[in-house]
Structure formats: C-alpha cells, structure tokens
Amino acid sequence: MIEARYHDSVNVLQALTGDMAGAPFDRAEWYALLASTGLTPLIAIASDADDTAALALTERDGQITPLRNWYSFTWRQLAPEGAAGDRLLEAIARQLKSRGHRVTLEPVPGEDGSADRLARAFRAAGWRVAVEPCDINHILEVGGRSFAEYWESRPGALRTTLKRKAKKVETQVLTRFDPAVWAEYESIYAASWKPAEDQPAMLRAFAQSEGAAGRLRLGVARAGGQAVAAQCWTVENGVAYIHKLAHLESHKPLSAGTTLSAALFAHVIDIDKVALVDFGTGNQSYKADWMEAVRPRFRIDCLDMGQPKAWAPLGKRMLRSLRP
What we know:
The chain has 324 residues and is an alpha+beta fold. It folds into two domains: 3-135 and 296-322, Aminopeptidase (3-Layer(aba) Sandwich); 143-274, Aminopeptidase (3-Layer(aba) Sandwich), CATH 3.40.630. The chain contains eleven helices and twelve strands. It has helices at 14-20, 28-36, 83-95, 114-124, 147-152, 156-165, 179-191, 200-212, 256-271, 287-290, 311-322, and strands spanning 3-7, 42-47, 52-60, 63-66, 102-109, 128-141, 170-174, 216-223, 226-236, 239-247, 276-281, 293-303. The chain has a twelve-stranded mixed beta sheet, sandwiched between helices. Helix 6 (156-165) packs across helix 9. It is elongated, with a radius of gyration of 22 Å.
C-alpha cells in the first residue's frame, strides 16, 4: 500500500535527503534556506513499507513548480533508484492532480536519468507531458589531470592573460567562512556589472553553513590591499560548484577575475582532487574558456486534461509545435 501526502514544512525532508543528497541543491538544509526567503513549500511525499520519495514544490493559482530560486543549478526528485522509486513518483504525480492543473519542473538534469524518470512518472499518472531543453550546464571533467596539465589545454589568450597579469594581484582561497571576506565579496558584487542579488541573506547563510561543513571555497583577489575580485565555490562528493563570481569594473584591466579563477581551479584540482567542476546554468561565452563540455537542463511541463484550466496552455503548446 502506497500512501501519498503533503506537508508545508521542509523539515520532513531531513531524514529523506541524507542518503540521497548528491549535490547542495538536494539537501533539506537547502530547501529550508529557500523557505526562509518567503517561498511556501508544498512537499509531496509517497511511501510504502520500505521506501519513501518526495518532490519539493511550491504552488500558486493551481500551478505547481519546484521549490527553487536562481541560485539552484538543478532541481530533481528525491527518490530511491529503481522500480520502487518509480512507483512512488507515479503515486505523487497522480495525487498532484488534486492540487493543481499544471506542474512545470525545471531545470532538471538528464545525465542522471532524472528528466526521463519524472516524465515517465507523470505520463503514467495520466498527465499530458512535454519535455524540452530550457538551459545548459557547462562542466569540466578533470580526468585525473593536474592543474598544470589542464591549464596547458586552455585557449592561448586565456593563458597569456594569466601570465601577464597574475603578479598584479594577490589571491587567497579560504576553506572556512570569514565575515570580513564575505563583506568584501558583497561590496564587490554590488559594484560589479552583475544584477542585484535576489536573496543576499540566503546566500550568506548558505556560505556560512558550507564553511562550517568544510565544503566552502571562498576566493578573493586584492590589488594594493583592496579586494577587487571575489568568488564563492563549494566542493562536495568529488564535484566543485562555482556559485558566484564578481570583479570590480574599475579594475578590469588587472584581469583579477581570471587570476582568481585560476587559483580556485588549481585548488580544487590539485588539493581537493575533484573529478568534475560545475559552472552552473547559463551560456555565457567566457564559460567555454574554462569548461570542456555542456549538458542540457530540461523543462518538464505537465498538464491535467481533466481540468479546463489546462486546455488553454495545451493549445499554446500545440501552436508552438506547429511553428517552423
């Protein structure tokens, strides 16, 4: 017997995510940070005698979406592998019809089978499902190389920039949270070309918790004692995640961002011995200089045709499919 239920607190994920958290964005602590920003959780859970699966969601006006924000590289199901987990996901998908007419899940990874699993579960539960790419993820597979070996394969212009500019700034990589350095990061970000932070308090709390767990890699570059570039990375399960980076436009000729990135790459490759570096989502051209592969991220749009509110979105979807 499978039981499906809902919760409005992320605390129920605490026991579930411990064994399944393969990335920062899978942990109960991450969802708690999201809830602290004002998002209202809809935690859909299904369990039987032996297994439990969950989807961390939120809902508004009958439309259900992932519990996430722009800091989240990915969103995926929290479910055991195999047939047992698939049955639980299907039970959740079927039960969600009682909460809304549309479920849109993104950005879902494909390389681990998540996109296929979720689409299959919702189709089996009777939803009309469309799957399409919605973003890309730049990555570097280290392949056992040292930083020196990796660096030899970088574009000539990038290597020349570092050779010419590296001595103009001093870099520091911290593996703990430092309030003074974080304040420098926030000051740099505020003065950079980047858009305003959506939830700066959440990001700071995340950095603090990652620092306490030993996963934070906080980098800063200084010129003449002034912080001119800063970056926030984390390392977990053999993967380095590049969360945030910024530099002062007023000091752009120093190429401090390039020098700091090289220092962090060297740290995670030679000291942390990571197997993968993940540059998050987005197709910014500079990412290709550092990364060597691209993975798609998917949007899974599910409509319940038993509810009239789903008919108009289906019509729009069909019209889009007819365009050349």
